[in-house]
Amino acid sequence: MSLTLSAIARYPIKGLSAEVLSRADLGFGCGVPDDRRWAMAHGAAGIDPDAPRWLPKRAFLALDSLPSLASLSLRRAGEGEVFEFVREGRVLLRADLGSGEGRKAVEALIADQAGGAARGRVSLVEGRGFAFCDAEPPLVSIACLASLHDVSEAVGRPVEVERFRANLLVAGGLPWQELDWVGQEIHVGEARLRVLEPILRCAATRANPRSGEADLDVLRPLIRLTGDAVFGVYAEVVAGGSIAPGDPVLAPPGGRLPARHGLGLT
């Protein structure tokens, strides 16, 4: 069965909603441009906003500890770095992340949302030459819609793909085919990627992407299905190129949970 690229997403601010792209230019050794470019560090993170560095996700406000963030949508407002922060269709803030005044306004909004989880002053920090992804190397996350369908059947209700915050969504093929890709290369449009490992999931998947309520446990169903709480895979770009929804995805055959020795899964 043929595979196609269904969607491309990036997350300008770590922990907030996705920006869906009509195309992306992937560079060698890079992630999706501007993915996780900004992050909201809590007061105990010990990060210098003027000289930020990559830190593990526990340094930032994120959905695993603050699921209510999911109720706050982010959308780009025109050109540049101007964004609107929206809840239930109402614009709470329009801010230019490229200006000090805009960043302070965002920090105040997020601090109010976070309450005690802010652990002091919230700082909106910008990655300069790196991204605030969970993994320090610049990787691309990939999820297959066939596997999502399998998860939904196990849970007994449709599971929103947004819970998994993937960069690339792949349509077609068999459930869990992506686990067979580990250690191998795939082609997406003009780009070539090497799949490195499955993505171990955390409590962030509890967060309803609309309401911000921690309303669904998908970790135990994932463990029952795959032997571990994994969904999707990380890949590195080994040959850059342009990609767009509808592009063919050329990947090794697989799926239906074959033997997973060598993947780090039990």
Automatic annotation (TrEMBL):
Highest taxon of source: Bacteria
InterPro entries the UniProt entry points to: MoCF_Sase_C, Pyrv_Knase-like_insert_dom_sf
Classification via PROSITE patterns: MOSC
GO molecular function: catalytic activity; molybdenum ion binding; pyridoxal phosphate binding
Residue ranges crossing the lipid bilayer per the database entry: none
Sequence ranges assigned to domain MOSC in this UniProt record: 112-252
A Pfam family per the record: MOSC
Gene3D superfamilies attached to this UniProt entry: PK beta-barrel domain-like
Name listed for the protein in its UniProt record: MOSC domain-containing protein
Source organism of the structure: Azoarcus taiwanensis
